[in-house]
Amino acid sequence: MPSVELDEETIERLDALRVDDESYDELVTELINIYETSEYTMFHAGD
Fold first, then answer.
1. Within 13 Å of residue 19, how many CA atoms lie on the same side as its CB?
2. Could you name the domain of life of the organism this protein comes from (predicted)?
3. Is 2 contained in some domain?
4. 9-41 pLDDT, tens digit each
5. What angle do CA 4, 11, 23 make, to 5 degrees?
6. Contact 27, 18 (CB under 8 A)
7. In a 3-state reduction of DSSP, which class is residue 47?
8. Is residue 33 part of a domain?
């Protein structure tokens, strides 16, 4: 699995979004899913 280095500000922002001891992996997956859903919705909004 690839490794990613984050600066302290990014880690603080991720920590503020975490819920109930959610792992960073779970949080990032959720954020990606939200992004993809938003992108999909915007793409099909013109249909």
1. 5
2. Archaea
3. no
4. 999 999 999 999 899 999 999 999 999 988 777
5. 80
6. yes
7. coil
8. yes
Distance CA(43)–CA(22), nearest Å, equals 30
**pLDDT value of residue 46:** 61
Residue 34 lies in a domain: yes
**Residue 25, CB half-sphere, CA atoms under 13 Å: how many?**
3
Which two structure tokens, joined as six digits, stand for 45? 């909004």
Inside any domain, residue 29:
yes
Assigned token pair, 25? 């992996």
Q: Look at the block and give the residue holding tokens 């503020």.
A: 16
Range of the domain at 37: 8-45
Our count of domains for the chain comes to: 1
**Burial class (CB within 10 angstroms; exposed 0-12, middle 13-18, buried 19+) of 14:** middle
Question: Tokens at residue 41, please?
Answer: 């919705």
